[in-house]
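User: Predict the complex.
Assistant: Input components as received:
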Amino acid sequence: MSTSKERRSVLIAGNWKMYKSLGEALELTVEISSGLPPSAEPLVAIFPPAIALAAVAERLQGSPKIIAVGAQNIHFEKEGAFTGEISAEMVSAAGGPMVLLGHSERRHIFGETDEAVGKKVARALAAGLTPVLCVGEKLDERETNRTNQVVSRQLEAGIAGVSDVAQLGRVVIAYEPVWAIGTGKTASPSQGQEVHKHLRSELRAAFVARHGSADRAERTLIIYGGSAKPDNAAELLQEPDIDGLLVGGASLKSDSFLKICRAAT
Ligand code: PEP
């Protein structure tokens, strides 16, 4: 089956990680919202630190360009004695319709397992959030030809708790090779495309396994992350299965983030 990119939007998402105080986050929010044309495309999302999420969402109310706000993580339980954690419901109530899950920094610095990520995806969907499920291989895994195996495992575990076709249809996938995150090394467009194509074919099987149509996978957004910048954005986005970009470092300045958004129009 051929992919039909025309049927999908382009999503440019900025992951601010543990950068930006509340004041700085608001300043960057205003710069981004005032710098974007009010056109429907690309879809834009920003993921500020949790402490700034509500204020950023509030500041965006009435912005001519719709910009979705999201959290960078949640706990998989609905509520409870989990000091330091935030829930999907709290994110939603704060005005954030999205959440990043299974980012490689969560997996490899904080030891998040595939299973925990899967529970978070299910929790996010139950709370009405749009989860961005991040998958990606480490350098040694690529060098030993295990990229597809690793991302398949992460994808399968990430959606294991999602039995409903409509819910699966709300999941966004981010392919982020760990060796490319924050390193200045970007996957080449063809390296990215190869993995995105593989992920889409895995998604086809996942929809079918849930008694849905394989065709639904053509509507899933699969975005790329890993040193995306203004000067490589356009060529990455030209690939048929690369539906957007998850941007870390280059999302911390309005100038570079806006350039990437413009490259997506
Ligand atoms: C990220 O943190 O998701 C990311 C892709 O970072 P960078 O763009 O800095 O590589």
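Residues 15, 176, 181-182, 225-228, 246-250 surround phosphoenolpyruvate (CB under 6 Å).
Let me know if you want any component modeled separately.
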